[in-house]
Amino acid sequence: MALADWIASYERAWSSNDAAEIGALFTDDALYFTAPFREPWRGRQEIVDGWLHRKDEPGTWTFTWRPLVETPELSVVTGVTAYSDPPQAYSNLWTIRLAPDGRCREFTEWWMLHG
User: Fold this and answer.
1) Nearest residue to 60 via CA among 14, 114, 5, 4
2) Is 0.85 topped by the overall pTM?
């Protein structure tokens, strides 16, 4: 249940681009990897700033997902993000490490354009 709740909150933050909603997803010292081998955004404020710098506009995307692995320490999720303008879709693979309080302490995303 923690994973589904966290992803629902992530989608709300993605839809709103509200700094408080984005920040509430992550621990103070969280790491957010925008690609597996890039330097991560470090800490809540850097995550919020990075997110807002490359934000998606509300209503321009849909997201579907399913868990591949869900443990108390690690969840792995696959998904598809479809954008309306221009029309394009991406396959997503996320690794999510949640803290005991339900906030994310480490997030890594892979995204591949459908060809």
Assistant:
1) 14
2) yes
